[in-house]
Design goal:
It contains 13 helices and five strands. The protein has 374 residues and is of the alpha/beta class. It has a single domain, classed as Rossmann fold. It has a five-stranded parallel β-sheet with strand order 2-1-3-4-5, with helices on both faces. Helix 5 links the parallel strand 1 and strand 2. The protein is globular. 49% of the residues are buried. The N terminus is likely disordered.
């Protein structure tokens, strides 16, 4: 009988093979395979532990129902959330992630993962964050139903897919999904150019398949597109980049790369106006921080470990500050104790960083003035 870990690995390998011809100049299969940490998957996805966590999560859900009210993402794209910065959109986030290593980078520490920091920040604020996720890219993720692969320290799992439990039983109220960071050389409406794409799958069509399936399972869910950061290897001579190369990289992230995601988001909400699909501009906001604030003083090798580019703890912490602000609709706790693994300049400029992030999100609107994130 195939184990859950074997199935998880095969699922991820299928998604890699499915898109490995998308951009052969920038795609490194061996590099992407490094994100699979089988020992971590085995340790954190024990079925018995998942069942116990599922039981506990049901009890916690009942306890949080009164405090949540109707704050579970029920507004559609034409009826935005009201965000005043003081009242959270949610106090009990139940999150499923269709992701890859720019959300969860498997290392010897969960500090290189967004879910870890979301859990820590929410705990500090007196809220709750729980969830599951999987590795892959959009075409592979669209091979539904999903398969929960992740286990993160401090984050309670909600769904045991191996046991055959229906996805809808987990009561996810938020979905986080992201595209590959190496496909932006062509439009999101253009079919992937790998050899066996007989169905002419595009980033848009794969996303719509995922969204449609998720909403069928959880009609009230809010879908967040996680805008990541671009492949660095294709923009520099070698890693680490020079100062001028890193400046060009950040300008590209805030410019042409960001434009691709705006068009992609517009297409999704145009095709599914009845579904609450939002976007979190993680990469561009981080590039602004690395360009226009004291965080520009952080050495690039303290942010990234390679040209993919996978990040270090500081990078994923900053990505999580942005993601938390978007999903909870309030700023992360001002008194959060930042560990020493995060660069000292983040410690010294924490409050101003939170304010810049908040301002960027407040101004992240469609051409018609509707919030893209709330």
């Amino acid at each position: 009988m195939m184990t859950r870990q074997s199935l998880a690995l095969l699922t991820f390998l299928f998604s890699i093979i499915f898109v490995n011809c998308t951009n052969t100049d920038n795609f490194d299969l061996d590099e992407e395979l490094e994100i699979i940490d089988e020992e971590q998957l085995e340790e954190n996805n024990d079925p018995e532990e998942s069942e116990e966590e599922n039981n506990n999560s049901e009890e916690e859900e009942e306890e949080n129902e009164d405090s949540e009210g109707n704050e579970d993402g029920e507004d559609n794209q034409g009826n935005e959330h009201t965000v005043d910065g003081t009242t959270p959109l949610l106090t009990n986030v139940r999150n499923y992630i269709f992701g890859h290593s720019l959300i969860l980078h498997a290392t010897d520490s969960d500090e290189t993962t967004v879910p870890y920091w979301l859990g820590a920040l929410s705990t500090s604020a007196g809220y709750n964050y729980a969830g599951d996720g999987q590795y892959g890219f959009l075409p592979g993720h669209a091979n539904l139903p999903p398969t929960a692969q992740w286990g993160v320290d401090g984050v309670q799992g909600l769904w045991n897919s191996e046991a055959g439990t229906p996805f809808s039983n987990a009561d996810f109220n938020t979905i986080l999904l992201t595209a590959g960071n190496f496909v932006q050389y062509q439009g999101s409406d253009v079919p992937y150019d790998f050899e066996n794409n007989v169905d002419n799958v595009t980033p848009i069509s794969a996303t719509l398949d995922i969204v449609d399936w998720v909403v069928q399972e959880e009609p009230e869910v809010t879908v967040y597109i996680y805008e990541n950061w671009p492949d660095m290897d294709g923009l520099i001579n070698s890693f680490p980049p020079t100062d001028s190369e890193f400046d060009f990289y950040n300008q590209h992230t805030m410019g042409e790369f960001h434009d691709w995601w705006l068009d992609y988001h517009d297409a999704i909400i145009s095709n599914r106006p009845e579904i609450n699909v939002k976007m979190i501009p993680v990469g561009p906001i981080m590039s602004k921080l690395f360009t226009d604030t004291p965080l520009s003083g952080i050495p690039v090798t303290d942010l990234y470990e390679d040209g993919a580019p996978h990040g270090r703890a500081t990078l994923y912490f900053l990505a999580s500050l942005i993601t938390y602000s978007a999903m909870y609709g309030v700023q992360p706790p001002a008194n959060f104790t930042i560990p020493e693994t995060v660069h000292a300049l983040v410690h010294e400029n924490y409050t101003s960083t939170l304010n810049i992030i908040w301002e960027e999100l407040q101004n992240f609107n469609t051409d018609s003035g509707n919030s893209r994130v709330w």
